[in-house]
Structures are given as C-alpha cells and as structure tokens.
Design brief:
With 90 residues, the protein is of the alpha+beta class. It has a domain at 28-62. It has two helices and four strands, in the order E-H-E-E-E-H. It has helices spanning 14-24, 69-73, and strands at residues 6-11, 28-36, 42-49, 56-61. Strand 2 (28-36) and strand 3 form a beta hairpin.
Length: 90
C-alpha cells in the first residue's frame, strides 16, 4: 500500500498557520523546532496532523504570499482528501 506521511504546505506566517491548523481545524501540533535553511537562515520545522491520524503537513514559510491563509485554505469546514491506489506490483 502506498501512503504519504507528510506533505509540505506553504504558509505566509508560521504562527498564524499553526494557530489556524490547531485552533480552527483541531489538528495536533506534532513537532515545532528551530532549524536552518541550507544557507544558514533560521526557519522552523512544524508538523501538524489531523485529529484522527493520516497524512500530516510540514508548514513551510513562503517568501511571498499575496493572499491571507484563510483565503488560501478556503472554508475550515471543507476538506479535500486525495487517495492514491497503486497496484501491488509497483
């Protein structure tokens, strides 16, 4: 069976995105630690996971975001789930 553990999700602001996923969507904050880019710039490694398990998101800060996070995600009450069914021979 093919599965995805983590998927990157580009966000304009770490704290705003973390609050949205945890407070609004009821995701679990699985990890939040300081890190660095390959060029030595500070960043954070933030992982949020849905309340009943499944694929989590690594929140990655984007350089530029023209729209607010809520607008990028749409309504908090909607969700889209993609499932990959790969043949056993792969």
């Amino acid at each position: 069976m093919t599965s995805l553990d983590l998927v990157p999700f580009i966000v304009p602001d770490y704290d705003e995105a973390t609050r949205f996923f945890v407070d609004v969507l009821q995701f679990t904050l699985a990890e939040d630690r300081a890190s660095q880019t390959t060029t030595g710039q500070p960043k954070r490694w933030i992982v949020v996971q849905p309340p009943h398990g499944g694929t989590g998101f690594v929140l990655a800060r984007g350089a530029v975001s023209p729209r607010p996070l809520r607008e990028l995600l749409g309504s908090a009450r909607r969700s889209v789930r993609y499932t990959l069914n790969a043949p056993q021979s792969l």
